[in-house]
Specification:
2 domains; DNase_NucA_NucB; signal; elongated; alpha+beta; Deoxyribonuclease NucA/NucB domain-containing protein
């Protein structure tokens, strides 16, 4: 069949994501294991997790522990010819691994299945996929031949294809922080030459830094990237190795007036994870900074019942058991016990409790691991939260 000019009225629609159900709530699904180096192929277990996770079936996809992102959803492309719609529904899996040792992110894409109504769009229709990145970043892989295939070839023979996004070693502050936007674009082209308008997907955000070269980030790799479309939070379990810490924080966040010092006094203690970015969170500070020293000094005054913390509503005398004085917000945050208002007055929005020593140490180690794993930067660059689970 030969196409005659003017005979066919061809209207095109971009690739659009179909609506989906509500996403999973926080901590319903365990995060995949972070990888030390970018893989040549996605991990099979992670792919299976992604494909079975309701939150991944969305236009935004799902960021797991900031090192990994995935999406398993269905998009469509259609062409209307002489009043008749020809359409393909394309189910795909996409994943992004953030490099933990370089300013790089690797994107994977695979067509899992497709369905057509057998009009001008059919199994032999060509689909072209590319990745775009904005703001001081480069993409490699768009010119590879495996990004342009017939739908049948995409599904039955291609498997995962990949792109690398590289962030230039430049940016804000001593950490050289750079934030980038990336997206997929796709187009269907029939064997008759009819094409959909190139569809551009939703922007996804990544952040890259060279913080490991800056004093205060001991033990970090010099450079790394994260997936930035998520509110970072640390999860403590009331049945885990830091159970006492979890119980203390839960009380501080949900019943602050029941905490010491000044028990019975209204307090507003920040840091509770709700999923709302407008809720007040915590901001990391450097160990040894003036703010950190002030937080630790205030904790010691409360712990030792020094004036003015020696009243009946203050922390009781240390019991004979092997316990330590746990504080919240953490000493390594701007919101810690030594936080003051603009006039220099202590805010008093904190809590100290006696916690089993081993559990308190475990809680501190978990916080250090979280800072490193999720690449929590100091100052205003990262606001994070605390999630308490049973």
């Amino acid at each position: 069949m030969r196409r005659t000019s003017g005979l066919l009225a061809v209207l095109a629609a971009a690739l659009l994501t179909l609506p989906t159900g509500p996403p999973a709530t926080a901590a319903e699904t365990p995060a995949p294991t972070a990888v030390a180096a970018l893989p040549d192929e996605p991990d099979d277990d992670f792919v299976e997790q992604c494909q079975n996770d309701p939150e991944s079936n969305s236009e935004q996809g799902r960021v797991w522990d900031r090192t990994t992102w995935c999406q398993h959803t269905t998009s469509y492309g259609e062409i209307i010819v002489n009043g008749q719609t020809s359409r393909a529904d394309i189910t795909y899996t996409a994943l992004a691994y953030a490099d933990q040792a370089d300013r790089k992110v690797r994107i994977f894409f695979q067509v899992d299945d497709f369905d057509t109504n057998y009009g001008v769009i059919n199994s032999f229709t060509d689909m072209r996929i590319s990745v775009g990145c904005q703001a001081l970043c480069d993409v490699s892989g768009n010119d590879d031949s495996d990004k342009d295939n017939m739908l049948l070839t995409w599904r039955d023979f291609t498997g995962f294809v990949s792109w690398d996004i590289t962030s230039q070693d430049d940016g804000v502050g001593a950490e050289r922080i750079a934030r980038h936007r990336w997206n997929f674009s796709g187009q269907l082209v029939t064997s008759y030459g009819q094409a959909t308008v190139p569809g551009v997907g939703l922007d996804h955000h990544i952040r890259c830094d060279s913080a490991g070269t800056v004093p205060g980030y001991g033990g970090w790799t010099a450079k790394a990237c994260i997936n930035d479309d998520v509110l970072p939070y640390i999860t403590y379990s009331k049945s885990g190795p830091a159970a006492g810490v979890a119980q203390h924080i839960e009380t501080a966040l949900n019943r602050p007036a029941d905490t010491y010092p000044n028990r019975g006094t209204p307090k507003t203690i920040p840091g509770k994870y709700t999923g709302n970015p407008d809720d007040p969170g915590l901001h990391r500070i450097a160990v040894g900074s003036p703010e950190y020293v002030a937080n630790r000094a205030e904790q010691r005054r409360i712990r030792d019942r020094s004036v003015p913390y020696n009243g009946p509503d203050d922390l009781p005398v240390k019991p004979p058991a092997d316990v330590q004085a746990d504080e919240f917000p953490f000493a390594s945050t701007r919101e810690g016990l030594g936080a003051r208002d603009a006039q220099g007055n202590l805010l008093g929005n904190g809590s100290v409790a006696w916690v089993d020593s081993a559990q308190n140490i475990a809680g501190g180690n978990q916080l250090k691991d979280f800072y490193k794993r999720d690449r929590i930067l100091m100052g205003d660059h990262d606001e994070f939260y605390v999630n308490i689970v049973p």
